[in-house]
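## retry 2 of 3
previous attempt timed out at serialization; input unchanged, resubmitting
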Amino acid sequence: MKSVIDCRGVSRTYADDGVPVRALQGVDFQVAPGEFVSLAGPSGSGKTTLLNIIGALDKADEGLVFLDGVDLAPLSASELSDLRLHRIGFVFQSYNLIPVLSARENVEFIMQLQGVAPRERAERAHDVLARLGLADMADRRPGELSGGQQQRVAIARAIVTNPSVLLADEPSANLDSATTEELLNLLRRLNEDQGVTIVTATHDPLVMSYARRRVQLKDGAIVHDESV
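## retry succeeded, writing output
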């Protein structure tokens, strides 16, 4: 089966106060369509760097990265932006919702950038918010929502465009255990019922337990990779 994510020999080095830090070291990592994968490891292990490179938010210094068979290396900034807009859904630990917009408007925002007609935007936003149990909160702004509700709005915004891949960076970081379980059950349903490919970066054992494949990173290298 063709990989939706294909990283080959990916390396990334940052400068920390002038000192080079190797965040990733020759990583080979492939993800098949419909997989639910957790990238685990302590702070500094490289999991967020790998997630950002997969999501075209950062570039590898060495190696190749393909998304849906597309080589990311030769793409221009505008082409990478277009790829993120149409093929990748992002869920950030800080939610990254626009505070002056309602939940519905936040969900519609990406579709507006895609040029989706207003009526279709409204219908799709309503449907996805209802599916996530937020129909009654569509007109509330982020400041009027709990952390768990904001995270669900962020997920609604990420999946409303039907992306190839959903990337979640530390999705449980700001949530209590009960809300985390609600979130993870939602991600599992998206994965199992709708076939959404999900990759999370996390150090939370609960998040790892929901993934069907667990990849462990240490010092920028994959040290363990198992399917469960």
